[in-house]
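Lab channel / #folding
Pinned by the channel admin:
"Please post every new chain as: sequence first, then the structure tokens as a reply. Keep commentary short and put observations after the output so the thread stays searchable."

First post following the new format, from NK:
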Amino acid sequence: MSTEEDIRTLWGETITSPQLQPEQTIKCDALPAHTATKTVVKAKSIGPASDTLSQSPDFELHEKIGQGGMAVIYEARQTSVDRTIAVKMIRPEMAGMEEHRQRFLYEAVVTSDLEHPNIVPIHDLGKSEDGNPFYVMKRVLGTPWSMAITGLDPSENLRILTCVANAVAFAHSRGVIHRDLKPENVMLGEYGEVLLIDWGIAVSYKEGGKADRLTETDAVGGTPAYMPPEMARGKAALIGPASDIYLLGAILYEIITSLKPHTGKTVMEVLTNAANNVIQRSDRDDELADIARKAMATDPAARYANVKDFLAALDEYHSHAESMAFSNRGDELLRKAQSSKNYEDFAHARFTYQQALELWPGNRAARQGVLRARLAYALCACDKGDLDLAESLLVSEDMMDTPLGDRIRGLKEERVQMTADKQAGDDGRRADMLEWAEKYFERSRFAAARDLFEDVAAITSDPARLEQARRGAEKSVIAMKSATDRQT
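Reply from TO:
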């Protein structure tokens, strides 16, 4: 565990400024080793607009649109092609300091080598007439993500994070790690553009990149509020792609909790918490929280193996999110069904939950929803007296051993008994009818006897009574014919 004394020894004077905030980038004092010898910086004219076209500068400065600790950014016009661009210039008070000039050039060279849709393109590099370096880049009309993140829909924030992660994955493919991923270093354009900026402390983690290889002397750098423990401790051997994955997880954590991972009353306390991976607690406990926590594991080896795996986890979440949307819709439909008592509404709710499970078999809410819908459907059927339907809904899910199942069994038993009692009563009435039919026959009321015998034959289910009724009807008809013949 790192102590404040360990942090003070490592970071030294860089964290003593009273103006320094945990959300600000801390840059080490070590110099890039080779930028100056590998980069040719040619003089370019830069300045205000001229009344004469022939005297127009190469880059015509307009309004100031941004300012950082080391540089100022202007909106400008590239006169050769008459297009609006942005010019980033080293601040005059730092132009005479070689270490700052080299760092400025370093950022330009590293960024220019990373051509990706989500990385600000660098168009040119030059120096003014007084020798101060500047570089030309795309003018992005928009705002830093840090100013918009709390007001954006979660799905939009996840889209932006995916764009940033794609840019980081590309940089990793070129052997470069950013080391300072945070919403402040992401620009959002007016037309959906997402651009990762500020590659000032980027380094190479393998041979072949334009960035310098990380050493123990320049391992110190980053933003304390988001920093992985190996960066806070200055462990150069552990700093690599996994450090950027941690930072992506830190941004995701802020998206879902509105909390920056590390906090404290002072920068020293925040750095100490970062070194020990003390993360602000949140009650958020879902799939996105699991993704963020895995990305922010203390041990770099326990994080996602690469950005592609991190993105795959987000993609899987998106498919799960669609499943959860169906599950939530199922909840709405089930409430409607319970109110309407309509069988079709119950069937619709069940179908919607099943759609959710098809998208994501692990959706516990949908699986529970299917059971709740069956129980509610069965209860409704039971209340309406459709006991066979109610029983079928429970039997298919082995839910008969429930209070509702017991109720359905009890009601069915009562119905059987009632049917038996009714049958017994009917049998008694039919015996009486046969008895009266025989009496009518004996009294020579053959037509009445015939009608009563036929009524019994039509309603009885007892074979013996049916046979007796049929014979009685036949003999009554014969007797009627005989009586008619005698009369004629």
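NK: Residues 31-37 have pLDDT under 50 and may be disordered.
TO: also worth noting, The CA atoms of residues 215 and 335 lie 62 Å apart.
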